[in-house]
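To whoever is on call:

I kicked off a structure prediction for a single chain this morning and the downstream step that reads the tokens threw a length-mismatch warning. I double-checked the sequence; it's 232 residues and nothing unusual in it as far as I can see. Pasting both halves so you can look.
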Amino acid sequence: MISRLVFLTLPFVLLTGCASLPPGHTVDERDPWERYNRAMFSFNDGLDKAVLKPVAQTYKATIPEVIRNRVTNFFSNLSDLASVVHHSLQAEPKPALESSGRFVVNSTVGLLGLFDPASSLGLARTNEDAGLTLGRWGVGHGPYIMLPLLGPSSLRDTVGTAADMRMDLTDELLNPDSAERITLTGVRVVDLRTRLLEIEKGVDLISFDRYVSVRSGYFARRERLQEQGETE
């Protein structure tokens, strides 16, 4: 579903041309397509301000935190299954087993992941994806890319995102064009955007150029995840 929206959105952004660079601009060798990326960033930002952010703010203001947490847990449980695959591909048997245990416990005792009893058992959540797996196999980031709707990425992580979309458990359980699948995708996007509201405040306060701040933050986080991993 998301991949189709990206495909449909891309031509409209390309028609807008490339953005100009700000005065005193410093070239970043990681970002050879910066004019295009800035145009895409402006498009995403405009769409976010017009649609996604207001919806996320309304969701946060009207839905009790306890229910929002259940929604977040449900989608996090789905990502645990992807972590099993990626830990296995990275030859990390212990984290793979722990992620498997998390998924089994939370899918059963935790009522399809709505609750997180696995954390109480000492099974910490790890965040793994295909981009990180490629990185640990020695594949570099490649050029920075601002994707339609999906936001900051790199050439390597874009390939990884496409692979992870193919592994999405909802692809196997629901027809891509079904009302249930469309609703689930919408709720997933709103949940993610809501969790970014507080982070966004910090970026806006310290940033003279939001594009550069987002780009720097993206690479810093991906490097940290690749070197140390991340647990919750």
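Update from on-call: the warning came from a stale cache, not from the record. Cleared it. Sanity check on the structure: Residues 34-62 form the longest helix (29 residues).
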